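Q: My collaborator sent me two sequences in one message, no labels, and asked for predicted structures for both. Can we handle them in order? The first one she listed is below.
A: Yes, handling them in the order given. First sequence, followed by its structure tokens:
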Amino acid sequence: MSDLTHFDEQGASRMVDVGDKAVTVRYARASAQVEMQTSTLQLIRDRALAKGDVLEVARLAGIMAAKKTADLIPLCHPLPLESVTIQFAFPGATRVSIESQVRVTARTGAEMEALTAVTVAALTVYDMCKAVDRGMTIQQIRLEEKSGGKSGHYRREHPPAESTTAPPAVEGGNEQRGNA
């Protein structure tokens, strides 16, 4: 077959045997963007949508999703997650940036949990705001960083156009909101 570990020699799907892998601290960080109308973002920032505080509901949805990743992705191993955080930032007048960080001590990595967390958080933003903005788009769902395990450390290299730093996330308030 190929180097894809989720297939055996005959091409059949399989769950990878991680029994002989070392237990190490695994970390993964993923991100997603939700693009929307300026007025929609202002409603989110002002906590003025009828359904409630969009970012806090999205944060809880992302954390819950990370914990359920093995139920959603067929060949993922269930992991005893030690930490899941979701942060939001507003890098422009029409965008919510979402970042997750997942930590676990296990035999396999937490990349899928981090990616699932930002995806479900972004979907929750969409769900809570669709009554006022059906044209929102969810973009750039991607792994930003991972560490631990045999393959070592990975960090996404951002092209120069993306190297502008978004304002740091801040706890509480009507501005950006930090970790859960």
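Q: And the one she listed second?
A: Here it is, processed independently of the first:
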Amino acid sequence: MRIATYNVEWFSNLFDHGGALQSDDKWSGRHNVKRKDQIDALGIVFNALDADAVMIVEAPDAHRKRDGAAALENFAQTMGLRARRAIMGFVNDTQQEIALLYDPDVMTAIHDPKGPPRFDEAYHIDLDTDAAPEAVRWSKPPLELQVETKAGHSLRLIGVHAKSKAPYGSRDPDEIMRIAIENRRKQLAQCIWLRERVEDHLDANEPLIVMGDFNDGPGLDEYEKLFGRSGVEIVIGEDHDTQMYDPHAEMVIARPLGPMPATARFWMKDRKRWMQTLLDYVMVSPDLRAKADDWRIWHPFDDPKCYETPELREALLTASDHFPVSVELDP
């Protein structure tokens, strides 16, 4: 069974309010990419991925006038995907939902949030050591799912889109630093909250996969030194017996210097070059580690099969600024 996560940049912009694809020559949310070109590219990527379940980050918007799950199911039908059933949890107001697109012939999935506090509520933690706990909220509440495979196995899935640490909205150096540190505090608080939920499932002996875009990773920025650990390391855990596992995260933790895997590619205007970074993960619980194999980042240049397939290579570059991450699982 192939499980994947994929951050699709501004997926929502490709649909009208009725959930129909807008395959035309108007601009998508991606820089210099037309909607038709992004839709065609996504069709190629999703078909090549051929996953039994894909946790989609930045899924189509959902609110009173828009049904993001219906939009995804329409996309799946149009592209002829096996993973054709969509499910969402708590919706948000950012136009970037979290959704699972899955094959109903292989599994069933229900939204099954836990708590307290639930991920659509507030979590209280002292972020700045002033002995006054602050309320932390997710702008994009994680998607908690109870999954049952047709083979009779149970799984817990948690889809994540953690807070970005980027200091948007300022050009003043002091303000940039202040916002960056504040954002990192909130991102780490989210990851502490998430780790507590992970431990609840591990204590209950429930097989668990935590997946998505953490906007973070070991050694990713200079502010990490102020806090000791990255958010990803917090979610993975310190105790060997209860550690979540992702080989790409382990590679960077074990060897912070030198070449590292990348799941996203961004253009830096000031430096006029591309930056690559590791932001997306598929973490499995200890009881699933021996049953999980072949983690793969579908990178257009680093993955040989992707690079040697020109149509797929170009589609990956057009479809999003992130690349899918998949794992083969025998639950």
